[in-house]
């Protein structure tokens, strides 16, 4: 069997997306999965899909059944990272809904007992985030969004991180422990 890889999923959140992508690009053996909104957000933040495709395999949300998730059943991945992740994706994952490429990745990773590291955009009642053009501003997640994030924290084989620094530490620890 070839070397196991890390699956990295981006949904439509721009929450520190530049920092997440910058870190992802420092890693080896990564496959990138993009929701349709993830593709749009990359473009909004000036991140070239073509340049990412030059560095790693990129899977896009173009099929109803999300065929690439079958790679989890072949032992192809050791870890799923979802960063950054929208409140919509977090809500669906916390309810067991797997109706898109990214939510299906999370469901199949869990069913295969593959560790997931998730960086939601809504982790606290007040957050600073970055808009396109590197403009910082405050957001105030609603209680329902925070509840979904907290619910996901209780899922087996799932680690929810609250910021980019925790994301980096958690991924590095996971890779060191393989």
Overview in brief:
The protein is α/β, with parallel strands linked by helices and 178 residues long. It is built from seven helices and eight strands, in the order E-H-E-H-H-E-E-H-H-E-E-E-H-E-H. Helices cover 38% and strands 24% of the residues.
Helices and strands in order:
Blueprint: E1 5-10, H1 17-24, E2 30-34, H2 36-44, H3 49-55, E3 58-60, E4 77-85, H4 87-95, H5 101-111, E5 115-120, E6 127-131, E7 135-139, H6 143-153, E8 158-160, H7 164-176
Parallel strand pairs: 1-2, 1-4, 2-3, 4-5, 5-8
Antiparallel strand pairs: 6-7
Helix pairs in contact: 4-5, 4-6
What can you tell me about this protein's structure?
38% of the residues lie in helices and 24% in strands. β6 and β7 (135-139) form a beta hairpin. The protein is built from seven helices and eight strands, in the order βαβααββααβββαβα. The longest helix has 13 residues, at 164-176. The strands form two sheets. Strands 3-2-1-4-5-8 form a six-stranded parallel sheet, with helices on both faces. Strands 6-7 form a two-stranded antiparallel ribbon. α4 (87-95) packs parallel to α5 (101-111) and α4 (87-95) packs across α6. The protein is globular and about 45 Å long. By secondary structure, it is of the alpha/beta class.
